[in-house]
Amino acid sequence: MATLTIPTAVLFDWDNTLVDTWPLIHGGMRVVFEKRGLAPWTLKETKERCHESAREGLPKLFPDDWQSAMDDFYGYIQARHLDDLVLLPFANEVIKCLTARGIPLGLVSNKNKQLLVKEVMHLGFSEYFGTVVGSADAVRDKPDPAPVQLALEQLGTKPSMDVWLIGDTPVDWKSAKAASIRAIGVGAEKIPEGIETPDVMFSDLEPIYNMLTK
User: Fold this and answer.
1) Of 150, 126, 196, 186, nearest to 4 (Cα)?
2) What pLDDT digit, counting tens, does each position of 130-177 carry?
3) What pTM was estimated for this model as a whole?
4) Cα–Cα distance measured from residue 116 to residue 122, given in angstroms and rounded to the nearest whole number
5) Per residue in 76-106, is it b (16+ CB within 10 Å) or e — as a string?
């Protein structure tokens, strides 16, 4: 495992890195499947399969009906996303500790930009992030490095192993590595073989909080 030192800048994924949105995403996908007469995924299957942005993932699942599927998915999400927004443990503390140290922060998410900005504002986090990059802001979404590179440019930060991207899925880690920054994983302690791995893996944000408050 890589030895971590205090970073010079940090990019965060949003969904299921700082906020718990798996039940919401699962509900949206359930609506998409049920409207098409298909058996919906279990929550476990949703967590395993929903890593890409909707704009890139849904056309693969429904190549002949992807625009309608997008409408159904986002119709469900838009009606509920602020009411169902829950911060994950230590998210607030980590963000405020990094800010207190003067470390530039950004968000890089595959979420629809309009929804993302509303959620950040709803939680009162706008002041902490120097950039918020959502789906379609860059030419490609994660796992492509383009959104990470865009966020770094907007923060005025050059890629290095002292810059972190903290995220919960392989698309985050792959994007970080392709952009030549450190990939920090949260949300699991064991990663299945054959997928992209982070440089460092934590079960949650508490170890990062502990590091920052030593």
Assistant:
1) 186
2) 999 999 999 999 999 999 999 999 999 999 999 999 999 999 999 999
3) 0.86
4) 10
5) bbeeebeeeeeebebbbbbbebbeeeebbbb
